[in-house]
Design a protein that fits this description.
Layout: H1 2-25, H2 29-56, H3 62-88
Helix pairs in contact: 1-2, 1-3, 2-3
Amino acid sequence: MHTIMVLTAGFVLLFFCLLVARAFAGPGLTPMRRGVQVFIPLWFIVTAVNMWVGVTQAGYTFMQELPLFILNFAVPAAAAVFLWWRFTHFKKGT
């Protein structure tokens, strides 16, 4: 259940990064690409802190937490990379 909540938080954070980029940088695809570029390192930090809490507070070992860290980071990051790719290769009229 915790993994689902963390993944959901990742997609919510991605949405807010894109929303803030659009709100403060204006329309167009360049701000959206920048929002994705901000999201990925920010999400890495969040998932690393989540892993650290799992190891230090919840009593899991590093090796038990590592696959969950990879999953929690990779799924929203992959969606962000896809969006970045889409914003980079977007052609008007298609």
